[in-house]
Amino acid sequence: MPKARQTPAEQLAQGLVALGIELAPAAQQTLLAYAALLDKWNRAFNLTALRDPEKAVSHHLLDSLAILPHLLGATLLDVGSGGGLPGIPLAIARPGLAVTLLDSNSKKTAFLRQAAIELGLANVSVHCGRIEDFRPAQPFAAIVSRAFAELADFVRPTRALLAPDGGWLAMKGLIPHEEIARLPEGVVVSSVTPLAVPGVDGERHLLLLKDTGATRPEGV
Ligand SMILES: C[S@@+](CC[C@H](N)C(=O)[O-])C[C@H]1O[C@@H](n2cnc3c(N)ncnc32)[C@H](O)[C@@H]1O
C-alpha cells in the first residue's frame, strides 16, 4: 500500500525531533499558522520564490529553526527578512528573544507587520528601509541573514550595529570560500557549522562571523 502523505503538522513535529529541538504544541501551531499566512499572501505579494506549499515546512520553517541552537544573546536583527525568514520562525520558537525584521520592500514589511499582529508575536518589531540607512538605538547581539547578499555586503553595512561581543550568522548553501576571501579586514569566520535540514537536499552551512576590531593600518 502506498505510504500516506504526511500532514504539515507531522512533517514539522518529525523535523523538530530530527533537529533535536523541543517546541511546545502551541508554538508548533503558530509556526504552521505562519506558513499558511505566507502561502496566502505570497500569491498577491511575491513574498518568497518558493511557491510549493508542501515545501514550506522543510525549506522555510525547519531551515530557519536549524540555527536555533546557534543563536547568541537576547537581540536579533534579520537583514533582508523578506517574508520573515529566518526571523519569524525564530521569534515564535524563542518568545524571550527580541527580533527585529528589516527589509527595504514595503509590501514585504506590510506583510511582516500583519503577520506579527495575527500571530500575536510581541517580541517582533519590523523596520522598512535599506540596511545602509538603519540607525537603531541599541546594537544587536546577533545579526542574521538568509539569501540576502554576499558576505562582505552583509557585514559592511551592519558592522556598526553589532554589539562588541556579538556575531553575524550567515545562512549559506555550500561554504562560500570566495566570499570569505573578500571579507573586510578585521572580520573573521569564527565557525562553520554544517546543518542537516530534514527534507532539504543539498548542503546548508551556518557561518558565525566576528569583528576582531582590527583594521588595516593606513597605507597598507
Ligand atoms: C532573496 S530575499 C530573501 C528573503 C528571506 N531572507 C528569505 O530567505 O526568504 C532578499 C531580501 O532582501 C531585501 N533587500 C535587498 N537589499 C536590501 C537592502 N539594501 N536593505 C534591506 N533589504 C534589502 C529584499 O527586499 C528581499 O526581500
TrEMBL record:
<comment type="similarity">
    <text>Belongs to the methyltransferase superfamily. RNA methyltransferase RsmG family.</text>
</comment>
<protein>
    <recommendedName>
        <fullName>Ribosomal RNA small subunit methyltransferase G</fullName>
        <ecNumber>2.1.1.170</ecNumber>
    </recommendedName>
</protein>
<dbReference type="GO" id="GO:0070043">
    <property type="term" value="F:rRNA (guanine-N7-)-methyltransferase activity"/>
</dbReference>
<feature type="binding site">
    <location>
        <position position="146"/>
    </location>
    <ligand>
        <name>S-adenosyl-L-methionine</name>
    </ligand>
</feature>
<keyword id="KW-0949">S-adenosyl-L-methionine</keyword>
<dbReference type="InterPro" id="IPR003682">
    <property type="entry name" value="rRNA_ssu_MeTfrase_G"/>
</dbReference>
<feature type="binding site">
    <location>
        <begin position="131"/>
        <end position="132"/>
    </location>
    <ligand>
        <name>S-adenosyl-L-methionine</name>
    </ligand>
</feature>
<dbReference type="InterPro" id="IPR029063">
    <property type="entry name" value="SAM-dependent_MTases_sf"/>
</dbReference>
<keyword id="KW-0963">Cytoplasm</keyword>
<keyword id="KW-0489">Methyltransferase</keyword>
<comment type="function">
    <text>Specifically methylates the N7 position of guanine in position 527 of 16S rRNA.</text>
</comment>
<dbReference type="Pfam" id="PF02527">
    <property type="entry name" value="GidB"/>
</dbReference>
<feature type="binding site">
    <location>
        <position position="85"/>
    </location>
    <ligand>
        <name>S-adenosyl-L-methionine</name>
    </ligand>
</feature>
<keyword id="KW-0698">rRNA processing</keyword>
<feature type="binding site">
    <location>
        <position position="80"/>
    </location>
    <ligand>
        <name>S-adenosyl-L-methionine</name>
    </ligand>
</feature>
<keyword id="KW-0808">Transferase</keyword>
<dbReference type="GO" id="GO:0005829">
    <property type="term" value="C:cytosol"/>
</dbReference>
